[in-house]
User: Fold these one by one.
Assistant:
Number 1:
Amino acid sequence: MSSSQHIVRSYDEELTRISNRIVEMGGRVEAQLADAIEAVSKRNSELAQRAIDMDAHVDEMETEIDDLTVKLLARRQPMADDLREMVAALRIVGMLERVGDYAVHVAERAVSLSNMPVVPPVLVISRMGKMVRDLFGDAVGAYAHRDAELALSVWRRDRDLDQLYASLFRELLTYMMEDSQNVTTCVHLLFVAKYIERMGDFSTNIAEHVHYIVRGHKPEGQRPKAGSARIATE
Amino acid sequence: MQLANSENAAKDGVGMPEKTGNLTTESKAGRTPMVVARDVDVFYGDKQALFGIDMDILPNEVTALIGPSGCGKSTFLRCLNRMNDVIEGCRVEGRISVDGQDIFDRALDVVHLRARVGMVFQKPNPFPKSVFDNVAYGPKIHGLSSSKDELEEIVMTSLEKAGLIEEVKDRLHQPGTGLSGGQQQRLCIARAIAIQPEVILMDEPCSALDPIATAKIEELIDELRENYTIVIVTHNMQQAARVSQRTAFFHLGKLLEFGDTDQIFTNPSVERTRDYITGRFG
């Protein structure tokens, strides 16, 4: 946040509070995400349940931060960087909540998967999981430090995740064609992979908003994108 | 008249990166500025109040002048119709033209200038006359009408343009001072437009008004923009953001930033502008 202070001290306090709560919420979702991914790779239903249980708290935080932000908008009518901060806050909080929802979806699949035979592509899921945790962690870190460079790096790296998703998609298709016994497991894994890929997209969007806060505009140009899985199916 | 010298305009590019931008915008839009100020210095006695102001004000736009008290924004506004002439010890240097005409030209009649560049003040100041006479006064002394009917036509049209006609049509011959504050201010605007100015200067026109009267004036400003060039001084940031297309930020007698209002209020390029509009210590 900006180093110089507002004439009205309580304005600074309100801005700081919102920002801190968002970072805190980001941390919660990060933990939720980590649990969900680990639940898949370690076939651990307890971790999955923990991720699912955490969601109510994440949702509460979203409501609370939205409320704080709307009140600040009404009370202070922020301008320039403050305005960008608040517009981004509303959006980022929404995206954090969505990532939390995807973590819950992953965790739910993890519960089902823990009772099914293991198929080798689950290793790719672990790699995707590690990648999305890094991306999301960096997006939240970029927000916490208002680091536009880190945000840009998240924005660029999402392509790697997309590529991994596309290759996993092909691999799962092969397994399903090989043995129809694998279809149920593979479909679950495919969903998990899609959720992870979406979490990567949200991390990128968060990064774009951090860039907007710091530089006053979204990153310029087309985001580097890998060929999507849609292409992979053709 | 030599209006713009792009080299000069860009010479102190630091802190004024938008200057060259201005010229580009105008050539792109193909519009000639209505008011051009070049290197304007103003002194009150020994004290310099404005330092080398360069500004192009485009026709049919609202230009907002903002900045902390004492920054020179009202002083600059008053330069544009030579209201500073009446202040003792005030000296203005530099060049200002309105619609291509040098306003310091010795041949120019200052009364005529003030008819072309009308002004609305902070506190509504209707004459102690009837509503009708308040508006009729200007056209009468400037000889804008040749008959009673024509004068009435001007008065009614002006009141209509000022959005006041509905409220005063039954009390045209009652004192203007009997109207509410907001109505009085719109009466003053009607009085200003009755003499068919090109430019209307407004010095904090809403600071003495309640939010509803303020909203009416703001709505009016937006309508008047179609036919006039408007320059407004305001201390209300939100108002500047709402009513203007371009915003100029003054600080300690200098023009620090001048650009599109949308950009200034979402992403100002000068640190001091940012500090001021966000309410930080400058």
Number 2:
Amino acid sequence: MWRFAGKRAIAALLVLFAISVLVFLIFFATPGVDPAARIAGRNASQETLAQVRQSFGLDQPIWVQYGVMMRHLFIDRDLTSFVNRGAEVIPQVQQAIPVTLSLVIGAAVIWVILALVMGVLATAYRGTAIDPIIVVLGVIGVSLPVYWLGEVVNLVTQSRLHDTIFAWVPSLGYVSLSEGFGPWALHLLFPWLTLAVLYAGIYARVLRSEMVGAMNEDYIRMARAKGIGEWRVLLRHALRTSLIVVVSLFGLDFGALIGGAALLTEVVFGLQGIGKLTYDSLQNFDLPVILACVLYAAFFVVLANFIVDLLYAWLDPRVRHV
Amino acid sequence: MSESMAAQPLLDVRDLRVSFRTRSGTVDAVDGISFTVGRGEVLGIVGESGSGKSVSMLSVLGLIDNPNCVVEGEVIFQGEDLLKLDDKELRRIRGKEIAMVFQDPMTALTPVYTAGWHISEQIRAHEKVSKKAAHARAIQLLDAVGIPNSTDRVNSYPHEFSGGMRQRVVIAMALSCNPSLLIADEPTTALDVTIQAQILELLRDLQSEFGSSIVLITHDMGVVSQMSDRVLVMYGGRLAEAGPRRALMRDPLHPYTWGLMGSIPPTDGTRVERLAAIPGAPINPSDPDRDRCLFSSRCGFASDACRPQPGLVEHVHGHLDACVLPYDQRPALRLEALTTVMTESGASA
């Protein structure tokens, strides 16, 4: 198991390095894209361009530029924005990370629990009315766009019913965990639920179809023939083997969300997270911030996949020796 | 009183019917079969695919997971009618009193758990023992079924065993609670021929050691002749013939049994040019025309006498069959059936 983890960790590091090179090349060396021209502004004279190139180090060979960028990003940690000169990038990212992590982890806990309960119940009561009801609820959840659902939630909790039932809902925005668990959770409750609704339905459906498939397997009949209870058959045999698929799906979604895919939820609920930061930096083509955000996102996608690989090996003994 | 208990069979199946409701009507997978299994007896059930042999034994334990399935009749096991028990009461019987071994050991074990886990789960489902004690019993059981290095292998996962070894694990699991009846549903079909013999030998050894009765479901006449005390031959969900192994193997009565026996290549004497095959295809269980001998559509001796459905008749002590052909002419007719096949194959060659 440790050997396996070590191997996967080395592979993850290599992937991160490759991503940093690739992203750098996309923004700094794509033919036709000249960062200096973007910084200097429209109709800049040749002298201004040359000055910009020199002052931003863009006249150096590409690998030197890459090295300098990475040194500023990871070693000196003093990379500054191209747009607001003097504004450091790392603190911006560091400020955004806890917001996104709080949003996504909380939502993930809710959607995984919901999906497990819904998937298991739908499997246990397949053939009765409960199963299609759960499946349809899931489809409705998947079909609601986050920005619409989020706005409706805001309309109800912040405006229409704010003076009556939802008087306890705080105003939009993020409150740090250091100010107490209660305020933190209360501020994030509706963002969590909104994001979770989207994923719980998909996960419940995937889990249900996996489990229904597993219930037709020989080992389920064998388990029943052993004289163990139906719930144990369902949870220890069918659910346990079906989790493998759910875990790999979770790794992909979780990594992407941490990396900024929760943008819509962040915008709707006024959370200054990574998604919002990436979006803003793309708007004004702030290369250092974009690079930092993308690398940060890549790091979490790779990390999530690394954890999923380990979970996989733990869940499925057949994987360990590969 | 105790004498009458001893004389009572362990399992007494009376007029068992298993039918499935389908869109095109009811299909009788098992159509009124009755048989008994004595204590310590090995009963072989033979028949081709779809003859109802597996379904009948699955229905005994309530293991048919199909809401459109109706099971009727009586299955008396140790004085209780299993078909009248609810799921909770059946669980007390399953695995503890009646254990099953299924055809494919590749898929019979949940892939994410070790051999020891599987065996412990079964022990702990029926007995209040600690995890440690169950684990120790698992090692003993793996030893008993001939798995070398059982203290290490108990922690191996199913995919780390070969097919034959996996079937041994399944058998160890089935025997873990000392069941009085073991139902083995084609236990050797998915295995190599050399491994088949080992597994059969293992079953026979364990049977004499543990004293369980065995119901051995198979389509292989060779397996039946090696193992069983008594044989049932099933066709189309009904009993075609039943009798003690020796009598049935030496003097099979039913034309269907003749066909089954004729399809075994002889291991001595001259090499036959072509093995006898039963013409036609197995009866479709949804065929509505059921008040007849179901084999008559494939039988060379079929006549008007084959309808209505002939009942089982006992000819010699314990040897029954459901055929209208005159009993004393059977040996001659059997010879005729064989020679017909020979000349037909000769003509077509």
Number 3:
Amino acid sequence: MSSPAALAGRGVLRRALRHPSFASGGALTLLLVGVAALSLAWTPHSAYLIQVRQRLLPPSGLHWLGTDTLGRDVLSMLMVGAQNSIMVGVVAVSIGLTAGVALGLLAAARRGWVEEAVMRLADFGFAFPAILLAILFTAVFGPSAVNAIIAIGIFNVPVFARIGRAAANVVWAREFVLAARAAGKGRLRITLEHVLPNILPILVVQATIQFAIAILAEAALSYLGLGTQPPNPSWGRMLNEAQTMIFTAPLLAVFPGIAIALSVLGLNLMGDGLRDLVDPRLARAR
Amino acid sequence: MSVFLARRLATLLATLLFTSLVVFLVLEVLPGDPAEVILGTEATAETLAALRAKLGLDRPAAERYVTWVAALATGDFGLSHAYSQRIWPLIAERMAVTLPLAVMAMVLTTVLALLLGVYAAAHHNKPADAAIMAVSQLGISIPSFWFAILLILLFAVELGWFSAGGFPGWSKGFWPALQALVLPAAALALVQAAILARITRSAVLETMREDYVRTARAKGLGRDRVLWRHVLRNALVPVVTIMGLQFGNLLTGTIVIEQVFTLPGLGRLVFQAISNRDLALIENVTVLFAFIVVSINFLVDLLYAAIDPRLKARDV
């Protein structure tokens, strides 16, 4: 027997490909993942090879997007940078999802002071600016990709805690949960067997959007020199290096930005589309 | 009202206390020895001991925290280790750049977002609406610091209308200083305006479905008059809330944008403090940022209750 969530999921999938913003966003996201996967096996040149004599070459047949100040191939760096962005998004969102959803589910299952405490903690998370948290982290532990990811991940926790709790509370009020309680199932079992599967679609939508925010945040931190460190290519740091050359090689400041914007646009469109598909009421209201 | 106010005020104070605690824990307790953070790992035992004594680090952490918060409550930000001067004048000097920048960006955001949002709603499901929505979707996806670099490329490198960065200071005259803030403010405003325009549009669309709007139209009031007088006023409630949150975002957004345009504001002060390992300065500026953000949210809460009395009733 299929659960209601699984049935809804199948329906969503069928409509998804016909939904314009989901389809276009999905295509962009697939492109991002495809490029990152391809770069694991092949890039036109090495993204790490420094050839000072080849520095600041304009786009050509050999170097499609030209070379940077150290003579590295820009296209290859962008391709490897895609791995970096995906990694940041996946890890930061996973941290937020795991801790946040656990807290949200706990709040919904326990109610009372536990719920109150979780929600106040979430409020605090919203009040404290994420970039400051990241700066504090890097001030103490030193700038690194890992520290940037942890800071972004922590910022995601209250987001998922709040959404997880709100969605779980709705499920707890449903009749099939009442039936499960009457059948003698405990809170943990109900949470895992009934609540979690039913709030999954909402969590997936939010995860998509947080993924996009994580890519933006990591780019900003790397631009500031607080994220990914050399020689690993990252789109944010490429923009930082390009800015010093803005009068001689303006194009260098264009390509990494396009890569970031397209990735974020793809994820945002996909998230919007998913939201319409998961909650058709919202789609009608628009 | 007083119960509502007291509740909100208590939340504000609790959030501020918690913020200061987190900042203190991250900077002074987590790393083990703050003196080592300040001096680096190569410092000798004597210099470390001397600094510990000078900064009072030989006292227990709880005592140091209480002393610090008590001083903060009286407006005493303490001494900067790297600048060897009091922190408050340093902050005040940098505020003269960051605050006008954030306010300019907020004004730009509001004007752009209200115009675009209301226009899109008034032309719901027409090409203009679709175009505005598409542009705002793009605006949300573009990192503000990249948009800043693009603005520099166009207006500083290609056209030469503005300088690529730097700040002449207010003492050199009002206009040159203001001019130096135009591109940074525009860069900050783009993303926030895109978000706010979408929210304005959906709030206006929602309000347009209300009965009193139909009544106003049935009374014979013109379309534009109903839109701007009746609809917008009621749609403003969610818009104002988001604006409050956005001012906080703009303020912390200045940290990145000031780096792009090398503006001597609070954000750059934080960065210099990090490279100087000036813990006291980092602590105090961070708490100040959080204080401003939390206070604005508090004010928005009050404003929100004033606009919509139903909220107050629910809260008590």
Number 4:
Amino acid sequence: MTMIETPPAGRRDPDERGYFGDYGGSFVPETLVAPVEELKRAYLDARGDAGFCAEFERLLQHYVGRPTPLYEARRWAQVLGGARIFLKREDLAHTGAHKINNALGQALLALRMGKRRVVAETGAGQHGVATATACALLGLTCEVYMGADDVARQAPNVVRMRLLGAKVTPVDSGSRTLKDAINEAMRDWVTNIEDTYYLLGSVLGPHPYPLMVREFQSVIGAEARTQIQTQAAGPPTVVVACVGGGSNALGIFDGFVDQEDVRLVGVEAGGDGLVAGRHAARFATGTVGVLQGTRSVILQDQHGNIEPTHSVSAGLDYAAVGPEHAWLRDLGRAEYTSVTDEEALSAFQQLAKLEGILPALESSHALAHIARIAPAMPADAVVLANLSGRGDKDVAILQAQGLGDDTTAEPVS
Amino acid sequence: MNSRLADIFSGSSGSRLVTYVTGGDPDETRSAEVLRALGRAGADVLEVGVPFSDPLADGPVIQRASERALRAGTSLQSVLDLIEQVRPDVEAGIVVFTYANPVLRLGVEAFTARAAAVGVDGVLVLDLPVEEAGPFRQQVVAAGLDQIFLLSPTTTNERLAAAAELGRGFLYGISRLGVTGARSEVGGGARQLVERIRRVSSLPVAVGFGVSHPDHVREIGQWADGVVVGSALVDVIAREADSGRLIPAVEEYIKWLRSGTDVKGAPSDHE
């Protein structure tokens, strides 16, 4: 395993075996080796095909509504004092999150590979909704696996998926959340490889998923780079994004990774604080291991079993981080921090009441970090955050947290 | 290089019976008794599974066994302790069947050294295909253990050859696509897979996934060197764990399955 000193500019491919430095690879049961290889060949072929890329771009523009706006949050910045703040509005993409970019790209690939059935996992339901949407659009059969606990917590997204024609299958094993949904989707795939495509939702899993998902999301960073140049007359000082698996973060980082003076910061879920089982901050207390096809930094106990995780945001509630993030961390190119549930909820309220935007609880983690750093930054500093999704899906959770009652109607600052 | 597994498969004709149980299921004490019972009933190779929190290659029966064993406090280290405890009483070959992460967590060198010390003969890592097996295999070989590779109907001829080159003891052919679990019929792809393996390797081939009946054992035994029974046996353990007749039930089940093998007399066979 050779270590590349710095990421080369432009296309940052892992090595032939799918390694980003020491991370990545393809740790799959034997039956999946051939389908994973078939997928890799099909993807590398598709990304070099002008027709495929043109169709993807056409859908991004006319169906998803890209480019999504870059919005300067002036009221919030004024309250915080310090840096200017720009938000990349992925929450305005069709279906309400960045997930649709990847879902459409992979659904097009499934079609190209002649697979008529798609399986996917989902946590909060955003990737499931995006996949169900892409499958409806392209005429593919869709089955989404979702942890039984998440089915109960995220009922509106379950209804959305079903309305879009997808079958939603609750997963009752293990911790009954995202990680178990991935296990079940992989079990389905290994059983039905002839006609089934596994549409994984983040920069996780065996090669080529971490590469492919990042590339389908890189449109976020490409757009943001041009937009920030226009609106701020220069590159950002720092780019901030939340990191669950890490696809929205890599999507926006990708536009700036070659600009070495731009700081890249990933924000993980600190949950109730960094106590085992009560958070999902892999870089804070995790160690190197293999989970669900890839070698990366994971939360595990002393025997190598995966630790339970907690976050108020279901999309960040996962025990492993994408392998490319681990590599960027080792290189010193990106840095990672975490914020607690409480800090994320506080940032959510600030954006809602000062800017009229309900951010997803996932994205609120990135915002919470901005609330920490912006006040100490000079007025000409520019903070760019990926507002990866909208918060409508989270209203029930927010209510359960005691927000949204009349008594919380005091002004913030 | 002497390998107990190679010895077990050489010698008299007829297929060998390979059994899978999850170590520590339903708890360490009863699991030790189950392993001894399997040996007594004439199993030729015991695969001992290491329970893992995320068994993505396993069907519901082994998932639940994994959960029972984890609840009982089982770990990779305690599975190795369990093997140490039963090894003097069992003549069969013993293979540790595990996912990669528990081994990586313990440390590959620490694992192989301890495995060799307690009398393990072979190691099979479910999610470590030949492409990822390089450094791991060096330690396995250095410790004098056999690395067993799984081969599937989807495995290409090129990769069959690579596994034949790197594998020792025996090769494990998966009879069909999908996760572990008993079926009423054995997949038709198995025989072709074995034929393809024979073209590139002289290693013995055991076939598993879906075996639950003496007819399967008889059928597979006609063209493979070994038959693996897993989920169906684990299901017996699940049903009888608290019935007070767990051990006789396991022995009877194995004897019933073995009624499908027409030839016995492997060197390890003590009947």
